[in-house]
Write a structure and sequence with these properties.
The chain is built from 15 helices and no strands. The protein is mainly α. The two termini are 53 Å apart.
Length: 313
Amino acid sequence: MTVVKKLIFAPLFIISFAILIWQLPSFLNSYDLLLSFSLNTLLQLLTLSSLILLTAMLFVLFASLAFDWKFVIPVGLITSPIPMLFLPPDLAIILGVAMLASLLIIYVSLENTLNSYVNFEPSALFGPSIRHLSTLLILILCLIYFLSVNQKVQKEGFQIPDALIDEALKFVPQKELQTPQTQQTSTTEASITPEQLELLKKNPDLLRQYGLDPKILDTINLPQSTQENTQPQPVLNETIKQAVKDQLQTIIDPYINFIPAVLAVLLFFVLISITSFLTIFIYPLLWILFKILERTGFIKFTTEMRSVKKMVF
């Protein structure tokens, strides 16, 4: 029964880590995630950050209850090969080795904490270890992301995502997107109505009084319907979008070798920010969890009286 208690959180930790690694290919195969602004992108980043935090918390809980190298090392060795199931071999090996090293480092720190604490406070005891392990996990994932994006950029080059251009053009007024020729044509067409044109055709002498040839009326384009006027707009937007994209691509091309590092750093700060926010939910969760474990008799606490040495005068 004691062994079961020590290993109760081990399967949960392994499952959480496996789900985290299962989510990675969708992030590693594209850099659009960090360069697009949408609700779907935010949900994906929240999911990834939540899995990172959950994995860190479950390992710390497992290690604190097991509190023995004979349990921690085998679980770490079982966890390390999991990336081989979802990632390319070179990236999987790096991630597995880095993950195993991180787990051992956190356990050493946690072991020192559990050997020296005076009063049991779940938040104070386990909170720092959870934060440190989640930070190490984010660093490992950012390293894997950098290696993956670097390989892709070296083979295929870097293309600015269309979603980024679309979002940028949303902040530009539509009048700014019109060419001078389009604006001039719109003004000319709006200056005469079909009724006026018909009236001038019936009275050509009015034009001759001003030295104009009545045949000029045949060259005037009447204003088109609203539906017809709106039809060329998507084509115009696509032209402008491609022009902006080409110009930005020309600016970025000389610095293409720095793009993987920039994206990896950006991913690090994004994940750190989200996990830092989500950490505030960890502390009440730890308190509730240990209260449940205590009430169900899964764990017990003892009160000790210790002698204290004080200086007196």
